[in-house]
Description:
Elements: E1 9-12, H1 20-29, E2 33-38, H2 42-54, E3 59-63, H3 69-83, E4 90-93, H4 109-137, E5 140-145, H5 149-152, H6 158-178, E6 183-190, H7 207-210, H8 221-232, E7 243-246
Parallel strand pairs: 1-2, 1-4, 2-3, 4-5, 5-6, 6-7
Helix pairs in contact: 1-8, 3-4, 4-6
Amino acid sequence: MQLDLTGKTALVTGSTGQLGRVIARTLASCGADLALHYINNETKALELKQEIEASGRQAVIVQGDITKQETAMQMRDQIQASLGVAGVDIVVANAVIQYEWTTVLEQSPEDYISQFESCVLQSVYLAKAFIPYMKEARGGRFIGINTECAMQNFETQSAYTAGKRGMDGLYRVLAKEVGEYQITVNQVAPGWTISDRDRNSEPGHDEGYTRTVPLKRRGEDQEIANAVAFLASDLSSFITGAYIPVNGGNVMPAI
């Protein structure tokens, strides 16, 4: 038994980011061809494209603001033309707008808008662009990157939490709307994850966080990508509407 995505095409938004690049590499290693979305870092996008092509998979880079519906439609058309496919089999909504966290009283209203746009509307636009093909194909995977923060509700998290909780509601409804077409809709919720930029950090700076984690460590970016690859594969064919924390048990959804 293995995660085999041979013959599948996957779109990863925010693929040049710390987590996005590992997700893209992992899906390619499972056999998928990749559409690599970026907003600003063209150099990293080209580097990732070359890396994936060197592994024997096809790749195309697509650029644009994921908070705009026209971007999603343009990406769809570009992917079809560049990769010669009728549509995308796997969508991973990973991109999110970054901003400075502060209290509700201090947080700019524009930050709440940006989080709604990048967490909720991004997925709405991706669904409108890519799910019609999945319906015709009677199958597909729609995966969103959420966060453990959506369950924690800690101080200064309000804009991020509001956006991700809105995303959670959207995904649960979408799962019910498209399930009859054998399209699954799921979310992966990382904790505070170790990525390339963290690997040279001072040891012990995360002790306050890991003290609360049952596994007593932070997760690795590869562990998040592994969960995404599982949800993208046929091994997850009867899982939909799920919010899956990948955080060592730091938050645990209850029944």
